[in-house]
Amino acid sequence: GAVVSQHPSWVICKSGTSVKIECRSLDFQATTMFWYRQFPKQSLMLMATSNEGSKATYEQGVEKDKFLINHASLTLSTLTVTSAHPEDSSFYICSARHLGRSDYGYTFGSGTRLTVV
Amino acid sequence: RKEVEQDPGPFNVPEGATVAFNCTYSNSASQSFFWYRQDCRKEPKLLMSVYSSGNEDGRFTAQLNRASQYISLLIRDSKLSDSATYLCVVNRVGNEKLTFGTGTRLTIIP
Prior knowledge:
Structural class of chain A: mainly beta
Largest sheet of chain B: 6 strands, mixed
Low-confidence stretches of chain A: none
Helix content of chain A: under 10%
Distance between the termini of chain A: 37 Å
Oligomer: heterodimer
Strand content of chain A: over 45%
Radius of gyration of chain B: 13 Å
Low-confidence stretches of chain B: none
Number of helices of chain B: 0
């Protein structure tokens, strides 16, 4: 139980285009979804916290107009990287909290490796 | 100073050996502590939570020292499948956000 499905697992796009990443909670309702970015050999850095039915909360230094987050339902949150540039190439991972789990409840998606060429 | 600091390694350890990692955290308001494991190009997966009294799960033992603000992970009788990056993760009181360390890379050598 407590599965978060993330798609696509990898994507290559041209500079200037937009890419949408989806995270779905398959067997539970995720009122809050967290979006992380991880550069090679670095830690996961929280980008934003997405709340169902309201605006996302972005971490300092993360451009909200560039990384658009939509959490329109209790099972789906999306991150759109707009006008992507090579420096946006990274590993993007979502995470949702499942309060029914005994291990404090965070489940991660399998990640999306974005390469902007 | 980073909120969660770990020795990045790499640690290259022979199979069957015991290996220990430490992690320090700077925010005394940190409340919950975890060790996650991340394989190359994969998402992190929870290895174990860390409790104040210390806890053990099979070959893995986690310890917490609140006074010194550090957390440790001990792996006994290491297996080839233990090769991964181990992430120290903390969470503050009243805050759902997790803060990740950079990770310690472990390679078990046959």
